[in-house]
Amino acid sequence: MKIRIDGKTIDMRAVWLEDPTRGIVRMIDQRYLPWKLKFYDSISVKETFYAIKNFVVRGAPTIGGTAILGAYQAVLEAAQKPKKFLREFRRRIELLKKARPTAYNLFHALNTMYSHVIDLLESGESIPSIVSSARELATNYIEEEILEKNRRIGIHGERILDDGSRILTHCNAGALAAIDIGTATAPIYHAYEKGKRVVVYVDETRPWLQGARLTAWELSQQGIETYVISDNAAGYLMWLGEVDIVIVGADRIAINGDTANKIGTYKLALAAHDNKIPFYVATPTTTIDPTINSGKEIPIEERSEDEVHFVWGELDTGELSRVRITPQGVKARNPVFDITPSHLITGFITELGIIAPNEIRNLVSKLVQ
What we know:
globular; about 40% helix; Four Helix Bundle (Hemerythrin (Met), subunit A); seven-stranded mixed beta sheet; Rossmann fold; three-stranded antiparallel beta sheet
């Protein structure tokens, strides 16, 4: 993604392997955006677990990318105890799996590394050879399973955006959520680079405000015309005829097409359906969980109620402050995802092309062969 710092524009990813030998993973600390650009360096599996669990990084593909780097850290740490390598490696993989329960990309990445390491062990490879191979796998996974697939999502999705398209998106499915270019934003960036005029309406996305803080920041860095709207304004703008298409990301997709995404997505899909507005989910096929038959089986993370009670913001003095917005003593619920039924989804924009919801099952059959 392009970021402007001190008058200069530079390309930067959301997460990367800063020091391959020591296993240092560097990531943009998303908790401080858009107010400050800060970085978080993880030097251990425990610190990577913390980063995923506590929103230093977020967004399904970026979670997956961070997890694969964390899995490489697990190999490095286990290699310090070669006689107990498998036990130490497995223990660290299981820890990383507990970081976030809903985003399937986390499990896809960790299972990919785990299977790879087990195969190498069974083949009699030496520990140094396994370390080298794990580093190569982590690097290739990010390049091929995340960045290349998202680039192709952008190519396929750009074709459904007309010159002058007014796009509504929810949460942050941009470069911060997908290491670079994004999923839901990939078609927008490709259309913009081709000279198409686009306008993007960004839901604020309570309670963590990923839209207002992160998506709006990303799009403004690219120079794309962007309007932040309250979550409750989306339906009204659709009713007015000011939205041409809705594009969102996904955290897990069942084989019947039911989709878990940030809380509030279901409500958007209902409004889009009522106003006959196309509703697309932009996602790599690695977000499809072949073990889940329907949305009813997708685990939904529920986080601390303090995320509902308090908001972070920048004071006029430039200081960051947390402010309570609810009465003392009032309880809150904080499910952070919801399920959009497949019949409300127009199509899935994937690296393989645009796929109808009823084609997901057949696609899964082909992918697992």
